[in-house]
Amino acid sequence: MEPSDIGKRLRQVRNRAGMGLRELARLAGLSPAALSAIEKGASSPTLATLHKVLKAMRSDFTEFFSGDSSDLCPAFPAAGMRTIEDAHRRYVLMFPNQRDLRFEMIHETIQPSERRSQWEVHDIDLGGQVLDGGPARLEVDQAGTWTLRAGDAFYIRAGQRHRLANMGDSPLKLITVADPPRY
Q1: Domain 3-59: what homologous superfamily?
Q2: pLDDT in tens, 122-153
Q3: In the chain, which stretches have pLDDT less than 50?
Q4: What is the pLDDT of residue 26?
Q5: Are 65 and 1 in contact (CB under 8 A)?
Q6: In terms of pTM, does the model score above 0.85?
Q7: CA distances for 149 relative to 2, 88, 98, 117, 169, angstroms
Q8: How much is the pLDDT for 160?
Protein backbone atom coordinates (compact mmCIF):
# COMPACT_ATOMS: atom_id res chain seq x y z
CA MET A 1 0.00 0.00 0.00
CA GLU A 2 1.41 3.39 -0.99
CA PRO A 3 1.92 6.11 1.67
CA SER A 4 -0.87 8.22 0.13
CA ASP A 5 -3.26 5.24 0.36
CA ILE A 6 -2.26 4.59 3.98
CA GLY A 7 -2.86 8.26 4.75
CA LYS A 8 -6.29 8.30 3.12
CA ARG A 9 -7.31 5.10 4.88
CA LEU A 10 -6.02 6.40 8.21
CA ARG A 11 -8.05 9.61 7.83
CA GLN A 12 -11.17 7.54 7.00
CA VAL A 13 -10.72 5.37 10.10
CA ARG A 14 -10.05 8.44 12.28
CA ASN A 15 -13.13 10.24 10.97
CA ARG A 16 -15.26 7.11 11.40
CA ALA A 17 -14.00 6.90 15.00
CA GLY A 18 -15.07 10.53 15.51
CA MET A 19 -11.59 11.65 16.54
CA GLY A 20 -9.86 14.91 15.77
CA LEU A 21 -6.31 14.93 14.45
CA ARG A 22 -4.88 16.53 17.60
CA GLU A 23 -6.70 14.10 19.89
CA LEU A 24 -5.45 11.08 17.96
CA ALA A 25 -1.91 12.46 17.80
CA ARG A 26 -1.91 12.96 21.58
CA LEU A 27 -3.24 9.45 22.26
CA ALA A 28 -0.71 7.90 19.87
CA GLY A 29 2.23 9.90 21.23
CA LEU A 30 2.87 11.76 17.98
CA SER A 31 2.92 15.41 17.08
CA PRO A 32 -0.12 16.67 15.15
CA ALA A 33 2.26 17.68 12.34
CA ALA A 34 3.65 14.13 12.06
CA LEU A 35 0.15 12.61 11.96
CA SER A 36 -0.97 15.20 9.41
CA ALA A 37 2.02 14.36 7.19
CA ILE A 38 1.10 10.67 7.35
CA GLU A 39 -2.54 11.37 6.48
CA LYS A 40 -1.49 13.56 3.53
CA GLY A 41 0.84 10.82 2.24
CA ALA A 42 3.86 13.08 2.66
CA SER A 43 5.37 10.71 5.23
CA SER A 44 5.31 6.92 5.44
CA PRO A 45 4.88 5.62 8.99
CA THR A 46 6.91 2.73 10.36
CA LEU A 47 4.87 -0.31 11.34
CA ALA A 48 5.48 0.55 15.01
CA THR A 49 4.11 4.09 14.51
CA LEU A 50 1.12 2.85 12.54
CA HIS A 51 0.43 0.28 15.28
CA LYS A 52 0.43 3.08 17.92
CA VAL A 53 -2.00 5.18 15.85
CA LEU A 54 -4.33 2.26 15.19
CA LYS A 55 -4.21 1.15 18.84
CA ALA A 56 -5.18 4.69 19.91
CA MET A 57 -8.30 4.28 17.73
CA ARG A 58 -8.94 0.76 19.10
CA SER A 59 -8.08 -0.73 15.73
CA ASP A 60 -5.29 -2.95 14.40
CA PHE A 61 -3.42 -4.01 11.26
CA THR A 62 -5.91 -6.68 10.28
CA GLU A 63 -8.89 -4.35 10.44
CA PHE A 64 -6.96 -1.54 8.74
CA PHE A 65 -5.63 -3.57 5.80
CA SER A 66 -8.34 -6.19 5.30
CA GLY A 67 -11.84 -5.97 4.02
CA ASP A 68 -14.62 -7.51 6.09
CA SER A 69 -15.54 -11.03 5.05
CA SER A 70 -18.68 -12.92 6.01
CA ASP A 71 -18.32 -16.47 4.63
CA LEU A 72 -15.89 -18.76 6.40
CA CYS A 73 -13.77 -20.79 4.02
CA PRO A 74 -11.27 -23.16 5.69
CA ALA A 75 -8.51 -22.44 3.15
CA PHE A 76 -6.74 -19.12 2.71
CA PRO A 77 -4.60 -18.93 -0.47
CA ALA A 78 -1.40 -16.91 -0.21
CA ALA A 79 -2.52 -14.75 -3.14
CA GLY A 80 -5.36 -13.35 -1.02
CA MET A 81 -3.26 -12.51 2.03
CA ARG A 82 -2.54 -8.87 2.81
CA THR A 83 1.06 -7.72 3.24
CA ILE A 84 2.26 -4.63 5.06
CA GLU A 85 5.87 -3.61 5.49
CA ASP A 86 8.41 -0.96 6.32
CA ALA A 87 12.20 -0.88 5.93
CA HIS A 88 12.74 -3.46 8.69
CA ARG A 89 9.62 -5.63 8.96
CA ARG A 90 7.13 -7.39 6.73
CA TYR A 91 3.81 -8.73 8.05
CA VAL A 92 1.62 -11.11 6.06
CA LEU A 93 -1.89 -11.20 7.54
CA MET A 94 -2.72 -14.86 6.99
CA PHE A 95 -6.47 -14.76 7.73
CA PRO A 96 -9.09 -12.32 6.46
CA ASN A 97 -10.79 -9.83 8.75
CA GLN A 98 -13.55 -12.14 9.89
CA ARG A 99 -15.27 -11.74 13.24
CA ASP A 100 -16.00 -15.44 13.73
CA LEU A 101 -12.30 -16.44 13.73
CA ARG A 102 -11.01 -17.04 17.26
CA PHE A 103 -7.40 -16.02 16.69
CA GLU A 104 -5.28 -14.29 14.08
CA MET A 105 -2.01 -15.41 12.58
CA ILE A 106 0.76 -13.29 11.06
CA HIS A 107 3.86 -14.41 9.15
CA GLU A 108 6.57 -11.92 10.13
CA THR A 109 9.92 -11.26 8.52
CA ILE A 110 12.40 -9.06 10.39
CA GLN A 111 15.43 -7.88 8.46
CA PRO A 112 18.91 -8.10 10.01
CA SER A 113 19.07 -4.29 9.79
CA GLU A 114 16.74 -4.06 12.80
CA ARG A 115 18.99 -4.82 15.76
CA ARG A 116 17.08 -2.69 18.29
CA SER A 117 13.33 -2.66 17.85
CA GLN A 118 10.82 -0.40 19.57
CA TRP A 119 9.09 -1.52 22.74
CA GLU A 120 5.54 -2.80 22.17
CA VAL A 121 2.58 -3.39 24.47
CA HIS A 122 -0.52 -5.22 23.24
CA ASP A 123 -3.93 -5.71 24.82
CA ILE A 124 -3.97 -9.31 23.58
CA ASP A 125 -1.87 -12.41 24.24
CA LEU A 126 0.76 -13.24 21.59
CA GLY A 127 2.47 -16.51 20.90
CA GLY A 128 4.79 -17.51 18.14
CA GLN A 129 7.55 -19.65 16.73
CA VAL A 130 10.79 -18.76 14.99
CA LEU A 131 10.79 -20.54 11.63
CA ASP A 132 14.11 -19.50 10.12
CA GLY A 133 16.98 -17.05 10.47
CA GLY A 134 18.05 -15.37 13.64
CA PRO A 135 18.96 -15.73 16.32
CA ALA A 136 16.37 -13.37 17.76
CA ARG A 137 16.59 -11.44 21.02
CA LEU A 138 13.32 -11.32 22.95
CA GLU A 139 13.21 -8.78 25.77
CA VAL A 140 10.29 -8.64 28.19
CA ASP A 141 10.42 -5.60 30.45
CA GLN A 142 11.19 -6.51 34.08
CA ALA A 143 11.23 -10.23 33.21
CA GLY A 144 14.39 -10.89 31.21
CA THR A 145 16.04 -11.39 27.85
CA TRP A 146 16.08 -14.61 25.83
CA THR A 147 17.80 -15.79 22.66
CA LEU A 148 15.45 -17.59 20.26
CA ARG A 149 16.56 -19.81 17.38
CA ALA A 150 14.67 -21.67 14.64
CA GLY A 151 12.11 -23.96 16.26
CA ASP A 152 11.94 -21.99 19.53
CA ALA A 153 8.59 -20.57 20.63
CA PHE A 154 7.47 -17.64 22.80
CA TYR A 155 4.38 -16.42 24.63
CA ILE A 156 3.70 -12.83 25.69
CA ARG A 157 0.78 -12.01 27.97
CA ALA A 158 -1.42 -9.00 27.29
CA GLY A 159 0.02 -5.83 28.79
CA GLN A 160 3.65 -7.04 28.92
CA ARG A 161 6.09 -4.53 27.44
CA HIS A 162 8.35 -6.39 25.04
CA ARG A 163 10.45 -6.25 21.89
CA LEU A 164 11.96 -8.74 19.47
CA ALA A 165 15.05 -8.03 17.37
CA ASN A 166 16.91 -9.98 14.69
CA MET A 167 20.50 -10.50 15.82
CA GLY A 168 21.50 -12.63 12.82
CA ASP A 169 22.78 -11.85 9.34
CA SER A 170 19.77 -13.14 7.42
CA PRO A 171 16.03 -12.35 7.61
CA LEU A 172 14.28 -13.71 10.70
CA LYS A 173 11.01 -15.47 9.86
CA LEU A 174 8.38 -16.29 12.44
CA ILE A 175 4.70 -16.99 12.88
CA THR A 176 2.82 -14.96 15.47
CA VAL A 177 -0.62 -15.87 16.80
CA ALA A 178 -2.85 -13.34 18.58
CA ASP A 179 -5.64 -14.29 20.97
CA PRO A 180 -8.21 -12.94 20.87
CA PRO A 181 -8.05 -11.60 17.31
CA ARG A 182 -7.94 -7.82 17.10
CA TYR A 183 -10.83 -7.48 14.68
Answers
A1: lambda repressor-like DNA-binding domains (1.10.260.40)
A2: 999 999 999 999 899 999 999 999 999 999 99
A3: 68-71, 183
A4: 94
A5: yes
A6: no
A7: 33, 19, 32, 17, 13
A8: 96
What homologous superfamily does CATH list for 71-179?
Jelly Rolls (2.60.120.10)
Strands (E), the chain: 82-85, 89-93, 104-110, 125-132, 136-140, 144-148, 153-156, 162-166, 172-179
**Per-domain residue ranges for the chain?**
3-59, 71-179
Question: 57 near 19, Cβ under 8 Å?
Answer: yes
Q: What is the pLDDT of residue 114?
A: 76
Q: Strands 82-85 and 136-140: what pairing?
A: unpaired
pLDDT score, position 72: 53
Q: How big is the chain, counted in residues?
A: 183
Residues 82, 45: Cα–Cα separation, whole Å:
17
CB-count burial class (<10 Å; 0-12, 13-18, 19+) for 36: middle
- In terms of DSSP H, where are the helices of the chain? 3-16, 21-28, 32-39, 47-56, 61-65
For residues 113 and 40, what is the distance between their CA atoms, to the nearest angstrom? 28
